[in-house]
Amino acid sequence: MLDRPLAPPPVEVIVAVTQALHREARLLDNEDLDGWLAMLGKDVSYRLELKSRRFRADRSPPFPLGPGVIFNEDLGRLKMRVDRLKSGFVWAEDPPNYIRRAVSNVEVLATRADNEVRVHSVLGMHRNRIDGTTRLLTAGRTDLWRSEGSAWLLAAREIVLDHSVLPDSNLNAFF
Amino acid sequence: MRFERIGREPDYSRYMDLKEGWLDRRIFSDADIYEEELYRIFARSWLFVAHESQIPNSGDFLTTHMGEDAVIVARQPDGSIRVMLNSCPHRGNKVCFADAGNTRRFVCNYHGWAFDTAGDLKGMHEEYCYDAGDIDFKNHGLKNVAKVGNYKGLVFATFNSDAPSLEAWLGDFRWYLDMILDNEEGGTEFIGGCIKSVISANWKFGVENFIGDAYHAGWTHDSGTRSMNNGQPFPPIDMDNSYHASVNGHGWEFGTEGVGDLFLLGRPKVMDYYNKIRPKMAERLGEMRSKIFGSVASASIFPNVSFLPGISTFRQWQPKGPMQFELKTWVIVNKNMPDDIKEEVTKGVMQTFGPGGTFEMDDGENWENCTTVNRGVVTRHERLHYRCGIGRQIEHDTLPGIVYRGQYNDANQRGFYQRWLDMMTHDEFGKMPARPEPQLGNVGETRNLPGLFAL
After folding, report:
1. What pLDDT was estimated at residue A129?
2. The domain spanning residue B122 has which CATH number?
């Protein structure tokens, strides 16, 4: 059977998922990390892969074990990161940094599964650190969101950071 | 409060007294001192440029920097490795903007001058515009460095034709390097790519942190240790059986318990792997080195490479001005490890010492703020304290180098700044003192040498 293009998801789904992205950004900005964890599926996969600048015509083979990933997290690892941030011993976050996330270019696409949608979005992250330094990071994100009961949960996120050299000393923030 | 406006010191020895244990803060931000570092240290030292596994095939290349000079490292058809300036001899533009890849030619974007992977000029756009006698192709290739060397997979280069051999430069430190480079048949390789990040700090703060500063770990990384270890803080250090060892500005601080850094990596399968090969490692490197490997440890190779044996992060602090460096990090593994163990190591490194790692995230901010705060016009007059453990030097029957007892110590940092001072004050490379006198000078291969007692 030939694949036919999928019909777009219902407008209610598009609205609900878009709202979920905005809510997620707000929870993270407000450091409501437990609230954020509650938006994640049990099997969530959260990844940020390395990139390197290559010539378009480059003919070298890919790395046998992949290029490496800066984040390659499951729910347990994400909880551990949250525990670390909540430990009271993260000197670099005290007093708190100011982080503001802007979510944009949201596209909600249907998948073969009725309760799942593929979501493309762009994230701009403004970080104002304790010493006053300000950094702007941008990233593209491709997510899988799943409807469970009345909520949409994040099931997978692939982050593509738009920087070949990180303009900051760490990535101590969720994208 | 009284202070005088001070200018540049007439002599670099005025910037520190390592017998007393203090440093002048100006060496971390002064632009003139930084320029002098580029000439006297970066242009004259052996500098790490690649791991040979990054460029296995003919035509493979990567781009990097030696000091602030952009270079290309390229594998030749005969298997050798060449290192050359990434700068066209015509107007100076870079001839390669990729991080890495495989190619036959480097072609300048400006006028199409084309070079082969050895750096030889092969042609250019509209070649007819040059009359006979205008240009000698032979003398207009990409400038090659003076020397290239390889120690057990690590490729170094130097601009300095008077530099000693790479083996002599590393000297007795080879005995320590073997623990990460030669602990198993087959040697090592880098896997995956390179992460680059910009840190607004002086390059020396990164080097000195890895060369000897075990002391910061329990406090700076308290949150990371606790979150990865069910709320338990950093384990106490055994001050009687842990050490600092310094050789000509290179340094390794370490315990002898064999498991601390492997534990901090947080990947039990990797711990199991090393425990399995440890008896073989003891046969290969001797009992002492098999107990040092995997312990809480960190190391730097002078001037700007660092790594954590056991945690397997390998990194270079590339200077970008007095108050900024670019940090490049890789993952180093044993070539003969099974793929699933290599994957585990990679995951562990990213989760601990990648830019999103639970430990790495605490460090950069400290170094940035040390750098900017030290620059204050009044603050810079105050000395910094580097005296920890200054009376704990020992003679050890196994360990080469200048050895201090107790890994909470500033000894290796003092050793690093002593070498810094030696290079800043000696015009003639050959007249710099050896610190200490080489004990393994006549030893060709240090793998088979369990320790000094065997001499």
Report:
1. 86
2. 2.102.10.10
> How far is Cα of residue B392 from the mean position of the Cα atoms in its chain?
26
What is the pLDDT at residue A59? 82
> What ipTM is given for this predicted complex?
0.89
* B213 classed as catalytic: yes
Q: What is the dotted CATH code of the domain comprising A11-50+67-86+96-161? A: 3.10.450.50
Name residue A107's beta-bridge partners.
A120
Residues B311/B224, Cβ–Cβ less than 8 Å: no
CA distances from A31 to A81, A93, B119 (A): 13, 11, 53
Give whole-number Cα distances, B187 to B171, B194, B311, B360, B441, in Å: 19, 20, 16, 27, 23
Residue B127 placed within a domain: yes
Strand ranges (E), B166-242: 188-199
| Count of CB pairs separated by less than 8 Å, A with B | 145
Predicted confidence (pLDDT) per residue in A29-49, tens digit: 999 999 999 999 999 999 998
**Residue B139: which domain range?**
47-148
DSSP 8-state class, residue B201: S
Cβ neighbours of residue B54 closer than 8 Å, sequence gap 6 or more: B60, B62, B100, B190
Reading the block at residue A144, the tokens are: 């899988």
A131 in contact with B at a CB cutoff of 8 Å? yes
- Write out residues in chain B with pLDDT < 70, as ranges: 1-3, 455
Predicted local distance difference test score (pLDDT) of residue A6: 87
A168 close contact with B: CB closer than 8 A: yes
Question: The tokens of A40 are what?
Answer: 């994640």
Is the confidence at residue A136, as pLDDT, over 60?
A: yes
Chain B contact set for A165 (CB, 8 A): 196-198, 326
Radius of gyration (C-alpha) of chain B in whole angstroms:
23
DSSP string, A16-61: HHHHHHHHHHHHHHTT-HHHHHTTEEEEEEEEEE------TT--PP
Residues from chain B contacting residue A171 (CB–CB below 8 Å)? 355-356, 361
Beta-strand pair B47-51/B16-17: unpaired
This prediction has a pTM of 0.95
Please enumerate in sequence order all residues whose Cβ is within 8 A of that of B364, keeping only pairs 6 or more positions apart, or say none. Answer: A168, A169, A170, B197, B199, B201, B327
Residue A3 has pLDDT above 70, yes or no: no
